[in-house]
Amino acid sequence: MAKKLKIYNGSSWEDVTFAITPPSTNVTNSFSTNQVIDVSTSVAALRVTQRGAGEALRIEDETNPDSTPFVITSAGNVGIGVSSPSGVLDINGRQNIRGNAVLSFQNTGNTAGFDVGLLGGTSDPIGYIFNRANSDIAFGTNNAETMRLTASGNLGINVANATYRIQTFSALSASVGSQSLIFQTQVNNGNNDYFRLYQERTIAVTSWGGSDWILRRQVDGSPMGGFRWAAADWNVRAIYGAPTDPSVRTSHISTSAPTGGIDGDIWLVYTA
Known about the structure:
The chain has 272 residues and is mainly β. Among the domains are: 54-92, no CATH class; 136-169, no CATH class; 170-269. 0% of the residues lie in helices and 36% in strands. It has no helices and 20 strands. A seven-stranded mixed β-sheet has the order 14-15-16-17-18-19-20, with no helix packed on it. A four-stranded mixed β-sheet has the order 3-4-5-6, with no helix packed on it. It has a four-stranded mixed β-sheet with strand order 10-11-12-13, with no helix packed on it. A hairpin with a 5-residue loop joins strand 14 (179-187) and strand 15.
């Protein structure tokens, strides 16, 4: 039975209560066994309120102060391996050997997931991502894959398993002037200058014969010179201005004799 301290007030006995004021200095407790918090509650089992400028929580190793602790600052920033996190989540693994991941995600059986690492050696890459399942890295939105980097180093865009170093797929619509597979390098001078290789629909059909490959240069927002490979006859034409306008072609290079007239002012015939 618990013992209580009572006093007699002249007519009855009353329990004595004490008001305990917490100390103003730090209290350090050392334990040789693990400590367990076992509660059944609908609110937080442990709550830490930091009213000052110090950290809300710090977990460190035997070294004090630890330069690589687990920290939650008074602002709510979390630092893992860093004493002063600069963002909401700041992770510093500082691994220098390939295969030691700074950040690792895996399933329960450790059969799938991926590791993220940063390497410090001069001959090592700045970072790497390693997929534990099959070494392929896939990216996508809404559960649909849009890009994959295979284990052999092939990059596929809208291609599930790329067999070449860079492989992509983009379907042309039936509308004349629609473009796809655009490769463009642009000068950042404010004049909309660029050099572009792309595929363009030239007639309103969905067959391959209605699309041409065009390589052209644009300066100050106006299409300039370039080359066009016509899908219908595979002849190379030098162009100026809008590539779909026959009147602006300046030359026609063919592998056979001309038929149906000359498109420009120069006609070159290839002979073996």
